[in-house]
Write a structure and sequence with these properties.
Blueprint lengths: L4 H9 L3 H23 L2 H22 L6 H16 L10 H5 L8 H8 L2 H10 L2 H12 L4 H8 L3 H18 L7 H4 L2
Length: 188
């Protein structure tokens, strides 16, 4: 049996509870992180994720058109659910304590900069970013969505996604303290 996300959505549309459980197992954790970033409240975030999967079960799966990946589609549903739960609350930053616990498999420049800065400095730097820049950063780095899917999810052009990422990284680089030791020197 095909275990792809698309096949699972088709099975959910046909009333297969096990397929919904598999979708939940694959995507609930990353959706919860995203919802936490948008709501800054674990209870509301958990409720938004639950409502996302309830919506999928109650008929959204039957309307999945395949215009994006299932993961991006789920992010879109979750984003709308978070909006319902936080109408007047601006989206805060993602909890840094959780971000510090995510294992780092490759040292990209922004990761090296974040590793050098202390958590409070990163939190202060992220708090200075516009909400739209924080959301794009989260979708690109925490959720690991490609630029095209972020653009589709947020309803903006790919160029705008790239611009927001560039500006957010530049603002973070300006706001974070600089360690005078380069990565090459640190390895000596």
């Amino acid at each position: 049996m095909d275990g792809s996300d698309e096949a699972l959505v088709r099975r959910v549309a046909g009333g297969d509870e096990q397929a919904l459980e598999l979708l939940h197992a694959r995507h609930a954790t990353v959706l919860l992180r995203y919802a936490l970033q948008l709501t800054d409240d674990r209870g509301r975030a958990e409720e938004a994720v639950q409502d996302t999967f309830v919506g999928v079960w109650q008929g959204a799966a039957a309307r999945f058109a395949g215009e994006s990946t299932v993961r991006t589609w789920l992010f879109g549903i979750c984003r709308r659910q978070c909006g319902k739960h936080t109408r007047a609350v601006p989206p805060p930053t993602w909890p840094l304590a959780e971000a510090a616990q995510v294992p780092d498999s490759a040292a990209r420049p922004e990761q090296v900069a974040l590793a050098r800065a202390d958590v409070s400095a990163v939190g202060a730097a992220l708090a200075l970013l516009p909400d739209s820049h924080r959301e794009v950063l989260h979708l690109a780095f925490a959720a690991e969505l490609p630029h095209t899917e972020i653009a589709a999810l947020l309803g903006i052009p790919v160029g705008t996604v790239k611009s927001r990422l560039f500006n957010a990284r530049a603002a973070l680089a300006r706001a974070l303290p600089v360690d005078h030791l380069t990565a090459k020197e640190a390895g000596r």
